[in-house]
Specification:
mainly alpha; 17 helices; 76% helix; globular
Length: 420
């Protein structure tokens, strides 16, 4: 996305390099494969715990530390997309992620696996770099379609990763999942190195100044702070639900295998449709009421879940409700956030993704802590309570803090020098 500090050469390059359908599809699949690295372990927690002679609750921390690593990567690495050559930077990150995946596959103990998955989360943020790059390469007539396709690829990657993980693990063991993912990361690194056209960096900024510009807009804009809180809360209840769901489905009365547990991820594809519909509601000026309905649906989904501990039909209903609600709220939050400062959307995206995954890490940690003590009912009631907090914050902010009536801009950094 062009900003006031974008060099003329970079803008010219972007205009020359319009995204083709093939390149759009490549970005979507590569981004989906990258973000899937965060969720390979989720349906395998009982499987991994048994193989490494540890409790399922301790294995649940694999999801937490991966998301902590991802939040750190979003904060520390994604802003570099504005100042580095992304043709080299994105494939380089994918190769680093491949090394982390191999370390996961070879981990001899739960401690080693926790360290490896933390590094995996840190290095698997390439999907968050591909999305703004797609917007830079697309022209004005198809930018929305291109970015929407890439974002849909990320969402589908999150959802189908659980299914693929369960099927591969049942066939060849959980370590094979990470070996296969490492091979895919290397393949996409090579393809993207060849496919991404040369682009000059959008700005030349010292790294500390780049990070300070993210924190500056958070401090200055009340809308940003409230939206980040709502985003983190929504993603926190989402990951808490899915982490606890693995514990539920692997225990009695279900006792499902990893492959069957993974298939439940496909039910969440309803969230992809919700994301598209939510974007249209925003365009129609209905973002604020739609956000409220989304939070009400989150509360309802956990109420259903609380009574569905022994009913697979009830669990499926809860999954559909939660995925539609969370993905819809997520898109509305992100669109509202981007409206605060069109000149700084990539850095606002850094704040959004970082806060979301901090919330996600807290959610998965809560599931791991609650499950051994009080089980599924406590997780469901906690989720409903957090949903009520989100609904209350929306009600308080819908006529004030969540509205952005002025056209704000982040302070412009020093302009880049034109390349010789």
């Amino acid at each position: 996305m062009a900003t006031p500090d974008t060099p003329a050469s970079a803008l010219a390059a972007a205009d020359r390099n319009t995204m083709s359908r093939g390149l759009t599809l490549l970005f979507a699949i590569a981004g989906g494969t990258a973000v899937a690295n965060l969720y390979w372990a989720q349906p395998l927690l009982e499987f991994i715990g048994r193989d490494l002679h540890t409790s399922t609750a301790l294995a649940g921390w694999l999801v937490t530390v991966t998301q902590i690593g991802y939040a750190a990567g979003a904060l520390l690495l994604v802003p570099l997309g504005d100042v580095l050559d992304r043709r080299r930077f994105i494939p380089g990150l994918m190769l680093c992620a491949a090394l982390a995946l191999i370390a996961c596959a070879l981990a001899p103990s739960i401690g080693a696996l926790l360290v490896a998955t933390t590094f995996l989360g840190l290095t698997t943020v390439s999907g968050q770099l591909l999305t703004p790059l797609a917007g830079d390469l697309a022209d004005d007539t198809n930018r929305g379609r291109v970015v929407g396709t890439v974002v849909s690829g990320l969402l589908i990657g999150i959802l189908v990763s659980r299914t693929i993980s369960g099927l591969v693990a049942d066939a060849a063991g959980w370590r094979a999942v990470y070996f296969v993912a490492a091979a895919a990361a290397v393949a996409f690194a090579v393809l993207l190195r060849r496919a991404i056209p040369p682009l000059a960096p959008k700005a030349h900024l010292p790294y500390p100044q780049l990070l300070r510009s993210v924190w500056q807009v958070i401090r200055q804009e009340r809308t940003v702070r409230w939206t980040l809180f709502l985003g983190a809360t929504a993603f926190g209840v989402f990951t808490m639900f899915w982490t606890a769901l693995t514990f539920l489905l692997s225990a009695r009365p279900f006792s499902y295998s990893a492959s069957v547990i993974g298939l439940f991820g496909l039910i969440g594809l309803a969230g992809a449709l919700a994301a598209q519909r939510a974007g249209r509601l925003h365009d129609l000026g209905r973002s604020m009421p739609a956000t409220g309905w989304g939070w009400a649906a989150i509360v309802l989904s956990f109420v259903v879940a609380a009574f569905a501990g022994r009913s697979v039909v009830g669990v499926i209903v809860a999954i559909v409700l939660l995925d539609i609600a969370v993905q819809g709220v997520n898109i509305l939050n992100q669109t509202r956030l981007f409206a605060v400062s069109p000149q700084a959307r990539s850095r606002l995206n850094t704040a959004f993704v970082t806060c979301n995954f901090i919330g996600g890490a807290a959610g998965s940690a809560a599931a791991s802590a609650l499950w051994p003590v009080v089980g599924w009912t406590a997780v469901s009631l906690t989720g409903a309570g957090l949903g009520c907090i989100g609904l209350l914050m929306w009600a308080l902010g819908r006529r004030g803090p969540l509205l952005n009536d002025r056209n704000h801009s982040m302070p412009e950094p020093a302009p880049a020098r034109r390349p010789d």
